[in-house]
Design goal:
Layout: H1 3-30, H2 36-54, E1 58-62, E2 65-70, E3 73-78
Antiparallel strand pairs: 1-2, 2-3
Length: about 90
């Protein structure tokens, strides 16, 4: 792994976790006890957005399968199980 690849991996981590924690912090900052329902709904929206940043999948090719990571676990899919592929 070269220096530039380490730099890219570090940037991904900062983007993924930094944005998630930032959205959580902003959600907590928006909450007000005087108006719990309105500010609670706004805070909930920021927590949902933070969950999206934490659930982004990473993909890598290994031998005869594709491995992807969601949250903290790697899962594998055999090439023979793939029916079609495209861009998302």
């Amino acid at each position: 792994m070269g220096a530039s690849e380490n730099s890219v991996n570090s940037a991904r981590r900062v983007f993924k976790y930094g944005f998630a924690l930032g959205f959580c912090a902003f959600g907590l900052a928006c909450f007000d006890r005087e108006h719990p329902y309105a500010t609670g709904a706004i805070s909930l929206a920021f927590f949902v957005a933070a969950t999206f940043f934490l659930s982004v999948a990473r993909v890598r090719l290994e031998g005869e399968e594709i491995k992807y990571r969601r949250w903290f676990h790697w899962h594998g899919v055999q090439f023979s199980e793939i029916r079609e592929c495209g861009e998302s």
